[in-house]
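Support case: zinc ion complex. Customer-provided input:
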Amino acid sequence: MGGVILRNVKCKYCGKIITNDTAFCFKDNKEKSNYYCDEKEYIHSINQKNNRDEIYNTMNELLGYEFLTPMWKKSMNGFLDMYDFKVLKETILQNRDSIKYGLEKNFDNEFFKLRYIEAIIKNNIEKIKKDFKDIDIRKTKIENEIFASNDIYGTEAVCDLTKKKSNILEFLNRSDLD
Ligand SMILES: [Zn+2]
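Agent response - structure generated as follows:
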């Protein structure tokens, strides 16, 4: 019979135990099979990785490091668990100057430096989150307004108007004949 040997695998995205026959499989460049519940979760996991890398790079640039140590990564991932990637990135960028200013201080060790920067992020991130929410609300409102105005001047309404106009013309023409 041969074929694929059925076995349990763990989804790399959500950690669920699935069987290798139904799972979405992606082979990495080391020919290692990575399993996901479905393609959607695979794409989510790629996006998540890209977002994480972008945050690490942003922090690296600010700190002047070549790479982030696990302690820094853990801290940034903690923020990413709670906040949207866009919100965290915007918070770091908007507070670039105060972070840089803080870095000029002499910290006893790396841990205090991290705590200091975490505090700057924590103190500002809720406001940025709210700003993003306000933009979303405004966008939805504008979209709804466009939708509503389409209702008034939509195709159906225009058709009716043309119909009415032609009826009037017809009437006028006819009365001209009479
Ligand atoms: Zn999954």
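Confidence is low (pLDDT under 50) at residues 154-159.

Case will auto-close in a few days if no follow-up is received.
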